[in-house]
Amino acid sequence: MSHELDDCDMPKVLVVEDEPSIVTIVRYHLESAGFDGFFAGDTEEGWRLLVSESPEAAVVDIRLPGHDGWTLIERLRGDARFQDLPVVVLTGLLEPEVVERASSLGCEYLSKPFAATALLSKIRVLLALGARSEGAARRSGVDPKTNLVAVGVVLLLEDYQVDGIVYLPPELARFSDAWESLMRDQRAFFPVTSATIYPSTGGHAVASPAFLEIRKNDVRAVFPKDVQPE
What we know:
It is a single chain. α2 runs parallel beside α3. Strands 6, 7, 8, 9, 10 and 11 form a 6-stranded antiparallel sheet that branches. The protein has helices spanning 20-32, 43-53, 69-77, 96-104, 116-132, 136-140, 178-184; strands at 12-16, 36-40, 57-60, 87-91, 108-111, 142-143, 148-156, 160-168, 189-199, 211-215, 221-224. The chain folds into 2 domains: 7-114, Rossmann fold (3-Layer(aba) Sandwich); 140-224, Roll (SH3 type barrels), CATH 2.30.30.100. The chain is of the alpha/beta class. The N and C termini lie far apart (46 Å).
């Protein structure tokens, strides 16, 4: 399988998951998207790969043989080498306390069953945010690992307006025609960070989530953030 990136430039993603069917799906989509996946079926193997491969991100299931995924996440958060590692908790556990615990450990949460596009979006956004906190990458707004550019946008939906940041390939990041740029992106959802949600009728913000995904089909219009829609 060919990729646009050379192997040495492929971002490494550790996946700790014991369900073979999930592993097959995640492996296929990671490789298709240009990531280098490393897979473990339990926390001990996950830790070994974490130390030996130094991945740029991790996807961790909670229900695992032996110690659960929280054990691995708490261990890596307590290690200076990995305390800032982007982590996605991928689990079939839907209780609110699971989401809260993931958030308290600095992790994104994604429930099973899941859309592959949603998982890839979360990984890309987390990597892009990490790069933006690292000197030159932060100043340029370009993530050298995922080759994405951070762009401020206003998304108009039927009932709401969302102001925030989306991450696009460089060739789509010129906003001379914002609508065409975003619509050419193949993703079904837009991952938006640092978002502020307003009623479409105007007024005060109703929410300010750090991360949300917006279905492309729900978007009526897109504008650069520094241009006010009429």
